[in-house]
Amino acid sequence: MISEPLLPLIIKMAIPTMLGMMVTVIYNLADTFWVGQLDNKSMTAAIGVAFSFVSLIQALGFWFGYGSGNVMSRALGAKNDTEAQIISSDGVALAVGAGIILTLIGYPFARPFAAFLGGNASEQLLLYSTDYLKIMLLAIPFSLFSTTVYNQFRLCGNVKDAMIGLLIGMAANMILDPILIFGFQMSIVGAGWATLIGQVLSCVYFFIHSHTQGNIPVSLLYVSFKKKRLYHIFAGGAPNFAREGITGITSVALNQVAAGFGETVIAALTVSARIAAIGYMLMIGFGQGFQPICAINFGAKQYDRVKKAFWMTVKIGTALMIVSAVFLAIFAPQLAGLLSTDLEVIAIASLILRLQCISFPLLGFYAVSSMYMQNVGQYFRALLISISRQGIFYFPLLFLLTALWKQTGLYILQPLSDVISAGLAIIIIKKYRFPNVSIRENH
Question: Transmembrane segments in this chain: where (predicted)?
């Protein structure tokens, strides 16, 4: 991490995380794809309604996982294995405890919660959203555990085991989707149970492999909730929690606003969001390969190496986003047709997707900037960048643009927010300086 040539190291670290992110994309597409084959746009829209809740749960997992994983990686860089073990235990304990509490509180109120998330556009949509959401509530403790340990593995440099653990659960989900939906005729409920079973299998893998191959073992025996440790977990994971949490909150707001235009619009937004994730999550995966390199070298005070790794990652990431934008814009109707058989849904989803491709090239710099600030301990700067795209700018624009241009406002919402957020990231990165080292590489 602190001596190998940077470009081969970044690529070596990024390939497993990129594969992991692509598996995540396929996994997120799986439920939408198979449910879409039922030729019921209410069910497709219900997946979108529930996904806003799933985003909030993922936000907690990333909070505990990134927060503990970042501190663990810096502790390992400073050769303090004992501290890394304690932080790991603290992160897992927080995740499991929060998961159990949320399941117990949320399950009895699944129907009103589904209505609040935007499932009240029709009675049929509310019924399907409630059925699917109930199973997602049962999956919370397993989801938080696997997401937390996955990020601990990855940020400490074990991207291989992290990817395999992720892959096992997602592969199980994708295999079980058609079996339960069609074979057992469970419809949308089958998609929910496939997700739950996949989460359980991921948990089993991560627990077993945390005790092998030099990993830090998952254990509650070393839990030590001291103020300083909790600060670093919560503050260190705050940018990720904020980014994912804001995404969940704005998804709820988006569904509520879109409900006023009918469930066809909700279904189209669901389809376009799943497809757009193909390009963006690929970029996130590449950036995640940079993160352990950044954190460990920063812990070892190799500041010039961190700076060079940042710019390499930005350049390659931007190229990836340009290629993704061209591909998605060309094949938008065909890709939308894979997730829905409704011609109106396909037409609207294709338009939304092509408009979003306009801002794709800017997202490479935006995404890596947040990761960079987070892993050098600049939590507030990272937080500011993280919440800008789906929060600071997106949320007010949602109401402003729809008030001015109705449905068209929904279509241009994301690209406009992307452009403004990328501008903010440029300003923040330009102003930050390492100790005695300029952030700008001498080109």
Answer: 9-30, 42-66, 87-110, 132-150, 162-182, 188-208, 309-333, 345-368, 380-405, 411-429
C-beta neighbour count of 318 within 10 angstroms: 18
The full set of domain ranges for the chain reads 6-431
Question: Residue 38, class by beta-carbon neighbours within 10 Å (0-12 exposed, 13-18 middle, 19+ buried)?
Answer: middle
For 437, list phi and psi in degrees, rounded to 5.
-135, 125
Q: Contact at 8 Å (CB) between 364 and 314? A: yes
Which pLDDT tens digit goes with each residue over 208-224?
A: 988 887 788 888 888 88
Residue 279: alpha-carbon gap to chain centroid: 13
| Matching residue, tokens 């029709």 | 122
Helix (H, G, I), strand (E, B) or coil at 65: helix
pLDDT per residue as tens digits for the range 304-319: 888 899 999 999 999 9
Name the nearest CA neighbour of 291 among 223, 365, 372, 367.
372
Question: What type of residue sits at position 221?
Answer: L
In a 10 Å sphere around its CB, with 0-12 CB exposed, 13-18 middle and 19+ buried, how is residue 273 labelled? Answer: buried
**CB burial string 239-263: b at 16+ within 10 A, e below:** bbbbbbbbbbbbbbbbbbbbbebbb
Are the beta carbons of 363 and 321 closer than 8 angstroms?
A: yes
Compute CA distances 65 → 2, 95, 153, 169, 248, whole Å. 23, 8, 9, 18, 18
The secondary element (H helix, E strand) that includes residue 423 is helix 407-431
Cα–Cα distance between 188 and 192 in angstroms, integer?
Answer: 7
